[in-house]
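Aim 2, interim progress. The first record below pairs a target sequence with its structure tokens.
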Amino acid sequence: MSTYALISLTVLIAAFVQGSTGFGFALISGPVIGMVQPRLLPVFLLIQMIPLNGYVTWRERHALDGAGATWISLGRFVGTFGGLGVLFLVTEQQLSLLIGLSTVLAVL
């Protein structure tokens, strides 16, 4: 199986899980992409999640919580700078290890 076919299949499965449960895209696709093409992380995941999150937002627009969305957006904005700091401080190998450990901790 080619690299692109594996990534495509992984993204398809991850998008299905995210669309039906509300979480799981990065938990499923991140480790696979990290093993196949580590240099694609994390930008690939973020770009791939934009259309999916847009669709889910549109589908569930009647149930949006404006105040909650504001708070979580502020947290994400601040967390972005923490994530950038991690990217500048760790090597590619350390990043792969960090993603793997984070995934295991999230599952537990």
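The second target in this work package is listed in the same format:
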Amino acid sequence: MYSDARAEPDPPTSAPARTGATALVVLAGLACVFTLHWAAALFVPLLMGMMISYALTPLVNRMVRWRLPRAVSAALLLSGIVGAIGSAGYTLSDDAASMINALPGAAQKLRRSLEDQRDGGPNGAIEQMQKAAAEIERAAQERASPPPARGVVKVQVEKSRFNVKDYLWPGALGLVAALGQAAVVVFLAFFLLASGDTFRRKMVKIAGPTLGHKKLTVIALDEINEQIQRYLQIQVFTSALVGMATWLSFLWIGVENAAVWGVATFLLNFIPYLGSTIVTGGSALLGFVQFGSFEMAGLIGGVALVINSIEGYILTPWLTGRASRMNPVAIFIGVIAWGWLWGVWGLFLGVPMLLAMKSVCDRVEGLKPIGALLGE
């Protein structure tokens, strides 16, 4: 006699279990965000070194094909780049210093011009509102602080006098820390370039016991490598074009220190959204100081805005094409999030990090919804 017993299906997951799993995921995400923010001094130089190694790997590979050792090729390439940056900074240091020294005068001149053009003169509506607000604040302070009783000495706390040493010492420490982080980035990039694909082979080896896991890791690493290299190459090319166009345009208009503006535009173009805003506003302000008219300030700022707009909305999307397959809204939100975590460095590293995240999410079954959210 045979029993007619059938295999019972697994019981559905209970609501408390699903709630607990969701809570664990949320807590893990918050812990990751806190760790990234808390250890920014570690992660930022590490990722910067990785980005530089990604960008320079094709050049090092070409030098290796010329029978040069990989370590020697990496050392020569990084030494040349650091030397070129130092030489350019030393050459343009005087012009940059003069621009920085002109900023207080620029702000004061702009304030005077706005006051002169304000309707109503000194007795205008804005001036009267400011006086009324001052009177209200004075009355509130007098009511909140009753006169002291007889025999009680009134004590007034005065602010400490300005001491330049209080500002020079933190500034010097910040400069030393920045130089130390720059040295860490350079040495890390050198070691990554000199090691070649050593870390790549190790990651494939520890990816998993099966051939499928190893193949999936190789595909993901290849895609990350290709995406980031293409993004960085396009960024360097377009930033150089924007810097050259800004320099030549400002030189034709007659803007002082046009070469400094070209270099600044080249560097700031690596920062999405914020870099073009800084160049447009700063060039318009200093253009107003030099020429003394709002028309010339608008012309200079408009030229900078047009150049950055052509690069940002036409040139870069055309060169990138559909290679990254990233959602523009996701890129914008992601760049803001990474900027909140790491400041300016987060704005620079935001897009490469999103490219790497999408490549991994597209290959892992449980993370494919996130990859679809980041994609077009």
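The longest helix spans residues 211-253. This observation will shape the mutagenesis plan for the next reporting period.
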